[in-house]
Amino acid sequence: MVPFLNLQEVNGQYRRQLLQACERVIDSGWYIKGQECEAFEREFAAFCGTSYAVGVANGLEALSLILKAYIQMGMMQQGDEVIVPANTYIASVLAISDNGLIPVFIEPDPGDHLMDPARIEEAITPKTKAVLPVHLYGQVCDMDAINAVAKRYGLKVIEDSAQSHGAYFGQKRSGALGDASGFSFYPGKNLGALGDGGAVTTDDAELAQTIRALGNYGSEKKYEHLYKGSNSRLDELQAAMLRIKLKDLDEQIRLRREVASSYLNDIRSDYVNLPQIQAKEGHVWHLFVITTPYREDLAAHLERQGVQTLSHYPIPPHKQRAYAEYANLCYPITERLAKEVLSLPVSPVQTPQQTRRVIEAVNTFAPRDA
Ligand SMILES: *Cc1c(COP(=O)(O)O)cnc(C)c1O
Fold this sequence. Notes:
By secondary structure, the protein is α/β, with parallel strands linked by helices. The chain has helices at residues 7-12, 15-28, 35-48, 59-72, 90-97, 143-153, 205-214, 236-247, 249-266, 295-304, 332-340, 352-363, and strands at residues 52-56, 81-85, 102-106, 128-131, 156-160, 168-169, 172-173, 180-184, 198-202, 219-221, 224-225, 288-291, 341-344.
């Protein structure tokens, strides 16, 4: 069997250290807004190369609080527009609509599936206030081009780094490439908590302070409320466990890269397209996504060979019932990708034998009607 992702094994690598961290927190008697979260924020900011990191409840809240803070700071208002890739996970879009802002979708690059900087300009209107590039699958978007357009039009650049912890673009890491960045520590992400968690990174002191207050009932000082905030905090237990896993993240990324380079070297099939990569050193391979017009057939073949796969994502946000108001919009590249993408298993605990089994299973595939 090659499971898509064995989280028991991923976390089992750190079992003793995780238990020690939990004991430390249990014995401290302090479970929210304490030393562990503070230390993790410092360490995660240093890892990303930003001045600030603010722990929040999850990745959706990280993105949503960035926009909420900009509204609070008077930099945008309800009804303003945010440009977002049409082929992203729905959370990127929910963060926008949750704040009364309007998502404006653009088609991705059909090769690497990332935000296409050439399509930003035509989507800009007088109401556009931000662009939200998503570093999909663990590969960073072309941030030079995106930042250049954003600068020309005075737009904020908000990175969705939920899939790209540690990914590089040139010398900088995901999280340090725009005005602010949202991270998720959902268990299945490359840096996963043992529950929900998230963080915002930024160099903007006022933004960091506003987000911190917004996620703490709008309060900086106990029982004094500056904003109509919410409760969105990274708890001490999760922070303590994330500190352990953060120390080993670069090694875990290296192991993911080994799996990915075996796939890239050894998968030979007329029926599948391998992922297009920009900078080999930068990609952190949260997902290894191939495309094929024979997706259902291939997934069934792999399943029979004991290889689990998933599709990220089979229905784009504008085709979801939740966004019925956008049902008439048409994004042919996005809609084709939704039908053709298939994610192969990739994880730091995947053995070379398992990787070979996946490669053989893909290489022996022949569609029924070919
Ligand atoms: C996982 C994910 C999110 C949301 O993170 P949660 O912690 O699950 O809320 C946002 N954007 C992308 C691209 C994701 O993959």
